[in-house]
Specification:
single chain, mainly beta, five-stranded antiparallel β-sheet
Length: 79
């Protein structure tokens, strides 16, 4: 069983895909969702392993419109 994620925008330099303003994905071999939070009044996204932050303003500067569909496997409950 698969879950389809439709990416509307992409930042080619950072290899990030943006589904909407709250859902940003790191586009590697296994796509990972970046966590979203507020830092000093600005919307930021944190990378999963390193914890580095990138602000929405920085991400918005390099976005291009590109339709990408990611198929991610759903983990079903064992019972």
């Amino acid at each position: 069983m698969f879950e389809e994620i439709k990416i509307k925008y992409m930042h080619p330099g950072l290899n990030l895909g943006m589904q909407d303003i709250r859902n940003v994905w790191l586009l590697t071999n296994v796509p990972e969702k970046l966590s979203t939070s507020i830092h000093q009044g600005n919307l930021i996204f944190r990378f999963p392993l390193s914890g580095k932050r990138i602000s929405y303003k920085t991400l918005k500067k390099g976005l291009i419109r590109k339709q990408i569909v990611i198929r991610k496997t759903c983990q079903l409950l064992p019972f």
